[in-house]
User: Fold this.
Amino acid sequence: MVKRLLALLLLAAIGGIFTTLVLGYMPDAELNNTARYYADHTAADIGSANLVTAIVITYRGLDTLGEVTVLFLAAAILGLVLARGRRQVQARRELTPVGELLTTGSRVLVPLIMLLGVYVFVNGHLTPGGGFQGGAVIASGVLLLLLTDPLRQFAHTLIAAVESLAGVFYVAIGLMGLFLAGGFLDNRFLPIGTLGALFSAGAIPIIYTLIGLKVGAEFSVMLSDLSDTEAL
Amino acid sequence: MSLLLTAMTLVLCIAMIVAAFVAILGKSLPIAILAAGLVSLVASVLFVILASPDVAMTEAAIGSGLSTFLFFFVLGRVRGGERDGEDEPGSEHG
Assistant:
């Protein structure tokens, strides 16, 4: 009873805090100084049509490198923990048969999902989305494959190689920016090109493709590790 | 914000809260998982209305797509595990 009362009290307090926040919220009539700098200078300096991408990859590129590292650590630790329960012998148990609808549907959908993922990260500097979103879309295609056939074996060495090489090239491009242009992860050592073209914005399409491959590979490794584990 | 957009936002918010309650209080696990995915889906639509398509894509891909799939995957594994234990009492786990 006391527990329930405490929970209700906590809920009321959180509700009160959010109500005051919402009632006191006034949308800004104009951009603040930081936002105005990005809005004014991105097209000329970076050449990326998507402002968010310019900030994520170039202005705040180091943060993105950190995020990718965190995701890599999570995948590595998950692999380490789950390695204990790795399946030794294949298919000891009888699996529930997968429906015809799922099998046929995944045959149609998986290539389209993969294509959408690649489209999202290749066009990261033009349209909303980018490496992380595209990588997650690719991983959901992999998950659909796993749902269709839970015993499917993925080429672990290939995925691991893609993941490591993408990471190495990402840092290498960052260093090239340091030596050939203004600083670490500066995209301007390649020509900026015309605003809105596919091959524009310097190194941003390359960096986002690498991030997309890396994130997709990391999520896929996590999922196939989970799938390979017999029991915990 | 125009009147139509405000009305749509209100409807979406109410739908989100209803879906969240279905996810918490529902008796059937698959329906609860679907309702939790619906919360993310409505949230991603709200992000589009609030003019942040990048966040909306992340929410749709990870919150609504990947985690819903993952919950279903784990649900299938857990059910298979129960049956597995009944069939093979001597099988070793872990």
